[in-house]
From TrEMBL:
Residues 1-36 form the signal peptide. Residues 45-235 form the Periplasmic binding protein domain. Belongs to the bacterial solute-binding protein 2 family. Gene3D superfamilies: 3.40.50.2300. It comes from the Bacteria. This is Substrate-binding domain-containing protein.
Amino acid sequence: MFQYLMSLRRILSPRVTSLALLAALSLTGSWGQAEAKTADGKYLIYYSMSYLGNTWQTEAMNAIIALSKMPGFADKVELRVQASGADAQRQIQQITSMISAGADGIIAYPISPTALNGVIKRACDRGIVVAVINGVTEPCAYTLKADGVKLGKIRTQFIIDALGGKGNIIEFLGVPGVSYNEDHHRGLVDALADHPEMKVTAQLVGMWSAQETRLKMREFLATHSWEDVNGIVAQLGCDTLTEMQVEDGWYPKNPIIPCSGEAENGARIQMLPKESGIEGALGARGLSVGSGLSGVPYALKIVKDVLDGKKHPRTITYDPVQVITANVKLCQTGSAQEFGQGCNTLPPALVPNDYVIDFWTPETAEIGIQQALTGNP
């Protein structure tokens, strides 16, 4: 049974409701094949969220909750969710409470790659299975991650190729201090090292938020124009930045500025040919490749497996699908089965433009759009 800390609230869109954040209770941990210790004999597993306020985190929370209610999990796992916000000390305090409450497993999205090391080591020493998304430097934790450096390179190289190795680009960063953000930036720097005619006109902190991306771009445009930008590398926000070009009249007088970034549904819709008749289709040049939202529900599978006595490598790196104009494919319903058949983009009526849709992978083949939207199986 989930114990709610707060009532349902809407995040970013009237169509996207985040499920309630959850309280923590219960007993102690063991190693190897764990002994379930909740009142009804289930493993007690916590998901420690960090940064709040964007669709990625909301979807990830919904996906892991939905998985916990599915066959094979519902009768073995009690999942409880807590959120610390962008506050590493608060996350440490919450994880400390999880240890004291007797967690069997803890899944964390760490706000810092190093700050949680001490509390994670204490959890491991108590026999608690710990899995983290995007990594910490404490080796006892299982790490599930997209390779941020590699992803930064891939996204930047797309823009380099689109511009013929010459031009001015804007880099949109995520949340400062988070390991993925820093890794992605390093990948961009590495990709640009051999291209002296590519210049970073501005680094803007978008905080992985469509609203913040819009705000920062408006601030930039107060002293610049779209003419000053030839390409964009955005950890999140390509769909928003393209919308702004339409709003400002830059398009259709000029081509959409190439943008590479997250697996946002709106950006993929914008890649569809304008003649397709799909609302928002512009034939835009872009690259849409996710940072691994599917890692959060997958981590629940890993933790449960380890508690069951199964083995997994300590580091699991996934390689997300790269979507460009040539392979963008519209789904009809967005069911898990349909994604399994090869579609990668949702009709605009189903989700907001900034909805990230790399929740489905072969490892998380149970998760479709309804699970990511509602948290229900």
